[in-house]
Specification:
Oligomer: heterodimer
Largest sheet of chain A: none
Number of strands of chain A: 0
Strand order of the largest sheet of chain B: 6-7-8-3-9-10
Helix content of chain B: 25-40%
Shape of chain B: globular
Strand content of chain A: under 5%
Largest sheet of chain B: 6 strands, mixed
Order of helices and strands of chain A: HHHHHHHH
Structural class of chain A: mainly alpha
Shape of chain A: globular
Number of strands of chain B: 10
Structural class of chain B: alpha/beta
Radius of gyration of chain A: 19 Å
Helix content of chain A: over 70%
Chain lengths: ~220, ~250
């Protein structure tokens, strides 16, 4: 029979999986708003945002109670420390997804610009890294962590390139400045989401390997 | 580890045929607190008692290997066991003051070592009680019976009694397990202060106590030393799975 403590840990794990999936869905909505639909903040998106916020608080409460009542050590301690941080990062991913939706509203020449600068590819990559982040929390695989680092690096490079090209486009064609600026913001939000996924991978690495690797340079990890 | 106080080499202990400690090798650093943890019957208290030859009192016990205290094997035939116990004091789980006055409890050790000068004895009693953080509580009632003290005070008095004979090493066998949280925290605070001058080895079942008080932790299981390391490492990233399972409460 699982101990009371193990039941609490399992509960925490399940809440993290849940909040992670909600953030993944939220990003899915954001990418849809960016690529296809006339963007609007749907009721569903608002509901999901509220759920994410609620779970974020719940995770804090569970962790606080475990710290106070169970005095966790070793792998349990690392799991709980990582959970608190992961929950913060996921909550930020949710907020950034909303920002993507909001900025997407102000992009008129959306389809042309998106096609011209391969923005759909970037959005897909960010969706993939978010899926991998969620997988990684469940399977605790070092290989997935490594894949996330590589993917984040490539997302960063693509974002820089796209922003650079968008800037040039805006210099030439002043009509697209408003849309272009909003797209730059969207790209920045997507890049931040990828960064948060990478931070989560670092927390998971700490959880499984007991080694803190945050703030290490990408090249040093290769 | 710099400055090794105790070096243990392949120490085994038998109760008759039964091997209770299996080839223990470890180094205990000077002026640090080393905690011994492990489930009941794992050999940690037996090991602690080896350090001042308390197991000599049990007829069926035999010991192989070496226990070097400052380089000298305390199980060597030429070693005087009385001197060892002077140098290596011990505090037990249950406080055991003598049925005498507070003063006499502390003065007892120096007296049997031949000290008669009242002035010197007074000084030792005061210093020892101060070191045991109990002088202010007891200074006005030194002639009262020690048996009238609370459990926590009795235990600190026993620590003062141990300190009175100027040991180098203090062994503590669950010194706070019968005390309330306030007395426990006083003992823990005391352990922290005493390590400046003494090498302390503490057996405890209370994992948080080991984590709070010690610099190094050794985990024993079934007579074997499974893992020893810095307390911070043992409680955050133990190397052995058995240690991890024990400290996280998933044993067996």
């Amino acid at each position: 029979m699982a101990s009371h403590f193990e039941i609490e840990l399992e509960k925490l794990k399940n809440v993290i999986i849940k909040i992670g999936n909600l953030a993944e869905n939220q990003l899915g909505e954001a990418v849809k708003a960016l690529l296809y639909e006339p963007a609007a903040e749907s009721k569903e998106v608002k509901k999901t945002e509220a759920k994410i916020d609620k779970l974020d608080v719940k995770i804090d409460e569970i962790c606080q109670s475990i710290f106070a009542l169970q005095q966790p050590v070793a792998s349990d301690l690392r799991f709980i420390m990582a959970s608190m941080q992961i929950s913060n990062e996921i909550e930020r991913i949710g907020d950034l997804a909303i920002s993507v939706i909001k900025n997407s509203k102000n992009i008129k020449e959306k389809h042309d610009l998106i096609a011209k600068f391969s923005i759909a590819d970037l959005a897909r990559q960010v969706e993939i890294i978010t899926v991998k982040m969620n997988e990684c929390f469940i399977d605790r695989s070092e290989t997935t962590i490594g894949e996330i680092f590589v993917l984040n690096n490539s997302i960063k490079t693509s974002s820089d390139d796209i922003i650079h090209n968008l800037m040039n486009e805006m210099k030439i064609n002043s009509k697209v400045v408003v849309s272009g600026m909003n797209l730059v913001l969207v790209i920045k939000h997507l890049e931040r989401i990828s960064e948060h996924c990478t931070n989560i991978a670092e927390h998971i690495h700490f959880m499984i390997k007991a080694k803190i690797i945050k703030h290490e340079k990408f090249d040093d990890r290769q | 580890m710099k400055d090794i106080k105790i070096q243990v080499n392949d120490l085994s202990l038998y109760y008759g045929e039964k091997k209770a400690l299996k080839e223990i090798s470890m180094q205990i650093p000077a002026n640090k607190v080393t905690a011994l943890i492990g489930p009941s019957g794992c050999g940690k208290s037996t090991f602690l008692r080896c350090i001042n030859r308390m197991n000599d009192l049990i007829p069926s016990v035999s010991i192989t290997g070496e226990m070097l205290v400052e380089g000298v094997d305390i199980y060597d035939k030429n070693v005087d066991v009385v001197n060892i116990r002077k140098k290596i004091g011990m505090v037990f789980q249950k406080s055991n003051p003598f049925p005498k006055s507070i003063y006499e409890n502390v003065a007892y050790g120096p007296r049997i070592n031949g000290l008669k000068d009242k002035g010197q004895l007074d000084e030792i009693v005061e210093t020892s009680l101060r070191q045991a953080a109990i002088w202010d509580e007891l200074k006005d009632r030194l002639d009262d019976s020690a048996l009238g003290l609370s459990g926590g005070q009795q235990q600190r008095l026993c620590i003062a009694r141990t300190l009175a004979v100027s040991p180098d090493i203090i062994l503590m066998d669950e010194p706070a397990s019968a005390l309330d949280p306030i007395s426990t925290s006083k003992i823990e605070e005391l352990v922290h202060e005493l390590k400046e001058q003494y090498t302390i080895i503490i057996v405890t079942h209370n994992m948080q106590q080991a984590a709070r008080t010690s610099d190094h932790t050794a985990f024993f299981y079934m007579g074997e030393l499974i893992e020893m390391g810095k307390t911070n490492d043992i409680f955050t990233k133990p190397e052995k799975k058995q240690t991890e399972d024990y400290i996280t409460g998933r044993f067996g």
